[in-house]
Write a structure and sequence with these properties.
Elements: E1 2-7, E2 10-15, H1 32-35, E3 42-45, E4 49-53, E5 57-62, E6 68-72, E7 77-80, E8 87-94, E9 97-106, E10 114-119, E11 131-134, E12 141-148, E13 152-156, E14 162-165, E15 172-179, E16 182-188, H2 192-203, E17 216-218, H3 226-238, E18 245-248, H4 268-277, E19 281-287, H5 295-302, H6 318-335, E20 339-343, E21 363-364, E22 367-368, H7 376-391, E23 399-401, E24 413-416, H8 424-439, E25 445-446, H9 464-478, E26 483-485, H10 501-513, H11 515-528, E27 533-535, H12 536-539, E28 553-555, E29 559-561, E30 571-576, E31 581-584, E32 590-592, E33 595-600, E34 608-611, E35 615-618, E36 633-637, E37 643-649, E38 662-670, E39 675-678, E40 682-684, E41 692-698, E42 714-718, E43 723-726
Parallel strand pairs: 17-18, 17-26, 18-19, 19-20, 20-23, 23-24, 24-25, 36-41
Antiparallel strand pairs: 1-2, 2-16, 3-4, 4-5, 5-6, 6-7, 8-9, 9-15, 10-12, 11-14, 12-13, 13-16, 14-15, 21-22, 27-28, 28-29, 29-34, 30-33, 31-32, 31-34, 35-36, 37-38, 38-39, 38-40, 39-43, 41-42
Length: 728
């Protein structure tokens, strides 16, 4: 057993059976000099235990039983391994190699709730009492990081196929198909933001996404030419409907795996230039699957760079990643495509597409697939990111992918929830899955708005029933970190749904008005390891009612979002956490926390509430995210508590921010003297405006978003110097 203190809040445990081999590479972790820098600790022992104590965390080892216990520095129990047979190793030969089937058992207390573990489709939010399979598949994202409501996390440090099992409430076991020993990190918060901060210290921090990626992404299965895409983009612009990106889904190619377009495509660089002239960005779908007839296939095959018995290139090989980039993606990149959709990243095989942990019974370049079952999405995405960054630092990486693993947050990627059904059942399950994904420590997530498979709506996607579902999903999607519509239907543009089109446009415009808030939160993700889409338990962990709420969440620090997930609903039950005060976003009416209400939810309205003490920056109406990045801005103040918010800005689509080229403005609200302080601007960047027009508005009953703010509040010109404005 090796116990390593990585930080005051992070302890690494590695145990091996006698004769066990050294640990194999773990590329999901940052190098040890970054991820496990060490920290002061005290070692002691008595007749019964050994003990390691840091400033925040204590680990003890029973001399009699051999099980570990973890406590806070002041002795409050967090969790402990079982005292009967805590750890077991069973020798196995898998894929022709010696390995061990490994199990570790913990004893949770009666009150804690469990979250994280990636994204799964059970609809469960709190995994207490359940078993979760950690194995990549379409719609099922396998990440072995569990977070407890007690204020700690367990990072089960393996890529092997694993079951996390709490069917017996007194035992939580991690059971992995293969490994050289037991390896895990105990992460202490106690707040969930602190736990996620330590997770990203271990596995990597999220870079800034381009500003345009936070705007509306228009997609369907599929546009068949760039002529069609240019026509769609032009209509969005002519009708002044906000939109930033159009997606080219699959089958654009002559042969899958080669960068050659079929006969529907003419002059791709020229057509992309037209889109760029119209302020529209583009994304193109590429797959790890490669057709044997492709030139890329032949290059990879000649060097033995495929996953055995599959037409999937072996992304665990640096050489294979280089061939894939040089033969396919860089050639598309140089044409002017702005981002890549890395589909089937589990990976999956050719038709019938099966992505059920296919690596576990194969050898790959990095090692035994039984030990590296879940690694593919990380190395596949990271290969694109690394080569992209080597090519240019003037265009930020943005990748859409269908799966992820430990560390995937560092690659500039967004996961979508996979090919889900168009149904209210599907919508409800995506919300729970997305909130657990956020608690796993990965910040960027989205869904196919409206669902992918039409199911009962096949051939009926213009029906009133489907249009209602689409609007309810669109309302939810407005408050996901990335805002994207997609689906397997003939048409999928906003005007396709005339019954609800005005409401769709209204929420689309709301998303763009919130761009200063959202982009500032994007900086907070990168700078502070923040999480944008926040289950209530993140901010209200001490309110036990929030532990099981799977269909409400915070969007940043200010806005509580309450999706409507039942057909025909005109209201929904909403819980307001205790010891808090809230404002109805639409009307400004106040609601005291610690209770449920039946919130009005007519079809055109999503129940939204803003927490007292919030400062919500809103921008002007705009048709694309870079149209008016410098304002004017409206600062909506929600009184009842002190508040603060930091406005961030930069050039929007390069990595100069890494060199310090950005600005921040700290805004505070003092409840006692009813004063807003707009702090002195720090930093600068090319194109930064000398002055910003600001309008300050104080929310109250009858003065919500639905009310005009132009005749209320105060307007000022901000030149970068501190301002204090009193609001009555």
């Amino acid at each position: 057993m090796r116990v390593t203190v990585c930080s005051p809040s992070l302890i690494h445990i590695v145990t091996r059976p006698h004769g066990g081999n050294a640990q194999h590479p773990q590329p999901w972790l940052l190098p040890a000099e970054q991820s496990c820098k060490g920290a002061p600790f005290e070692f002691s022992q008595d007749e019964k235990t050994f003990s390691v104590k840091t400033a925040k965390l204590t680990a003890t080892l029973s001399k009699e039983r051999g099980n570990l216990s973890f406590l806070t520095a002041d002795g409050k129990p967090l969790t402990n391994e079982g005292d009967a047979v805590p750890r077991t190793y069973k020798a196995e030969t898998l894929n022709g190699e010696q390995t061990y089937h490994i199990v570790d058992r913990f004893r949770p207390d009666n009150s804690e709730a469990f979250y994280g573990l990636g994204q799964h489709q059970s609809g469960m939010f709190n995994y207490r009492g359940a078993t979760v399979e950690i194995g990549q598949n379409n719609t099922d994202i396998a990440i072995p990081f569990l977070v407890s409501s007690k204020g700690y996390g367990i990072l089960w440090n393996t890529a092997s196929f694993t079951y996390v099992d709490n069917r017996f409430p007194l035992e939580l076991s991690f059971d992995s198909l293969a490994g050289q020993g037991i390896d895990y990190f105990i992460v202490y918060g106690p707040e969930m933001d602190d736990i996620i901060h330590e997770y990203r210290n271990l596995t990597g921090h999220a870079p800034m996404l381009p500003r345009w990626s936070y705007g509306f992404i228009q997609s369907k299965d599929r546009y068949k030419s760039l002529d069609e895409i240019n026509g769609i983009a032009s209509r969005y612009r002519s009708e002044h409907i906000p939109m930033d990106t159009v997606v080219q889904d699959w089958f654009w190619w002559k042969t899958e795996g080669d960068p050659y377009f079929n006969e529907n495509y003419h002059d791709v660089p020229a057509d992309l230039a037209k889109l760029h002239d119209n302020h529209v960005h583009t994304m193109i779908s590429t797959w790890g699957l490669i057709d044997p007839a492709a030139e890329t296939y032949k290059k990879l095959d000649a060097k033995g760079l495929f996953v055995p018995h599959a037409n999937v290139y072996d992304a665990s090989s640096p050489e294979a990643r280089a061939v894939y980039w040089n033969s396919l993606t860089v050639k598309l990149f140089k044409q002017g495509w702005d981002s890549f959709w890395l589909d089937s990243a589990e990976p999956e095989e050719f038709w019938p597409h099966m992505g059920d942990s296919i690596l576990r019974d194969r050898k790959i370049a990095i090692g035994n697939g039984a030990e590296y079952t879940n690694i593919y999405p990380l190395v596949h995405n990271e290969g694109i990111q690394q080569h992209w960054r080597e090519t240019t630092d003037q265009k930020r990486v943005f990748l859409l992918t269908r799966s992820a693993f430990l560390g995937s947050q560092r690659v500039g990627g967004t996961v979508w929830s996979g090919d889900v059904y168009s149904s209210y059942w599907g919508l409800r399950h995506q919300i729970a899955g997305g909130l657990n994904y956020a608690l796993t420590g990965l910040p960027y997530w989205t869904t196919d708005i409206g669902g992918y498979w039409p199911g009962e709506f096949d051939g009926k996607t213009t029906s009133p029933e489907y249009q209602e579902l689409y609007l309810r999903w669109f309302q939810f999607g407005t408050f996901c970190p990335v805002f994207r519509s997609h689906g397997h239907r003939p048409n999928n543009e906003i005007w396709t749904y005339p019954m609800v089109e005005p409401s769709l446009i209204a929420f689309d415009k709301l998303r763009y008005r919130m761009m200063p808030y959202i982009y500032s939160l994007g900086w907070k993700v990168s700078h502070d390891d923040y999480t944008i889409q926040r289950p209530l338990v993140m901010d209200f962990r001490n309110d036990a009612i929030t532990h099981d709420i799977a269909d409400q969440f915070m969007f940043g620090p200010a806005v509580m979002v309450n999706p409507v997930t039942e057909a025909g609903a005109i209201e929904r039950r909403v819980y307001f956490p205790k010891d808090s005060l809230w404002y109805d976003f639409w009307t400004g009416e106040k609601i005291q926390g610690g209770k449920y209400i039946q919130a009005p939810a007519p079809l055109e309205r999503l129940p939204l509430y803003v927490r007292a003490g919030s400062i919500l920056p809103l921008g002007p109406d705009e048709e694309y995210a870079d149209e008016k990045p410098n304002g004017p801005l409206e600062l909506r103040i929600y009184p009842g508590a002190n508040g603060t918010f930091t406005l961030y800005n930069d050039e929007g689509n390069n990595y100069n921010y890494e060199k310090g080229e950005f600005s921040t403005i700290r805004v505070t609200w003092s409840e006692a003297d009813r004063t807003v302080t707009i702090g002195a601007r720090t930093g600068r960047y090319p194109g930064m405006p000398k002055t910003i027009s600001l309008h300050l508005f104080l929310a109250s009953a009858g003065k919500g978003f639905a009310a005009s703010s132009e005749r209320e509040g105060k307007s000022v010109q901000y030149d970068g110097s501190e301002l204090k404005i009193k609001l009555d």
